[in-house]
Recover the amino acids of this structure.
């Protein structure tokens, strides 16, 4: 008989480290450079949060909490700049879905999710795509960008429904079983991971009948 786990909650150390990386680190960086930004004519602070800050997901409690805290910090910082008449300092938050860096390999890709969820709610996003959104946020003075934009447009309407309905909707969108197939980078967690993966994506070895090897670009 299969027994249920006593808890799916992350250990305290893991939660603490997640908060350190996603909340305390940006806080310290901003605190260090803010005096210099005040002296500039125009300054921009862009924090990278996550769509998970708004979509509750099983097995992502620490990560989701840290990204939600980063959004709250950005909003407070933006208000503080306005109150203190530092209007030249613009604070933006970009909240993308998972980016294809390998950190969330296998997440939201299992059989529990339909094609619409995989393609529209959690499509593949490359780091270059997020970089373009950061540039867009700066050049267009956007305070917050939620990706994909369809989800960002629908999120405010979720607040109008009772919690029992939103819990069902979030579970349907992957909040219940989205992390069941999670693999992450595992042992591939190193600086050369992305380069190695890109090389594998760009080239594929094809063996012909004459046993000759051809390298084909599969982009």
């Amino acid at each position: 008989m299969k027994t249920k786990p006593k808890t799916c909650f992350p250990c305290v150390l893991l939660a603490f480290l997640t908060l350190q990386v996603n909340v305390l680190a940006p806080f310290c960086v901003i605190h260090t450079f803010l005096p210099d930004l005040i002296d500039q004519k125009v300054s921009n602070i862009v924090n990278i949060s996550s769509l998970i800050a708004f979509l509750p997901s099983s097995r992502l409690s620490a990560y989701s909490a840290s990204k939600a805290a980063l959004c709250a910090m950005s909003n407070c910082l933006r208000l503080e700049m306005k109150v203190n008449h530092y209007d030249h300092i613009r604070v933006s938050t970009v909240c993308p879905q998972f980016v294809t860096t390998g950190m969330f390999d296998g997440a939201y890709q299992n059989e529990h999710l339909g094609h619409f969820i995989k393609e529209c709610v959690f499509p593949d996003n490359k780091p270059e795509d997020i970089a373009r959104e950061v540039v867009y946020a700066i050049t267009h003075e956007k305070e917050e960008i939620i990706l994909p934009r369809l989800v960002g447009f629908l999120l405010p309407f979720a607040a109008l429904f009772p919690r029992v309905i939103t819990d069902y909707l979030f579970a349907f969108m992957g909040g219940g079983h989205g992390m069941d197939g999670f693999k992450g980078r595992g042992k591939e967690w190193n600086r050369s991971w992305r380069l190695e993966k890109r090389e594998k994506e760009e080239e594929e070895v094809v063996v012909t009948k004459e046993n000759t090897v051809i390298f084909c670009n599969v982009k």
Summary: Residues 12-39 form the longest helix (28 residues). The helical segments are 12-39, 61-83, 115-121, 127-139, 149-158, 163-175, 193-202. The CA atoms of residues 11 and 62 lie 9 Å apart.
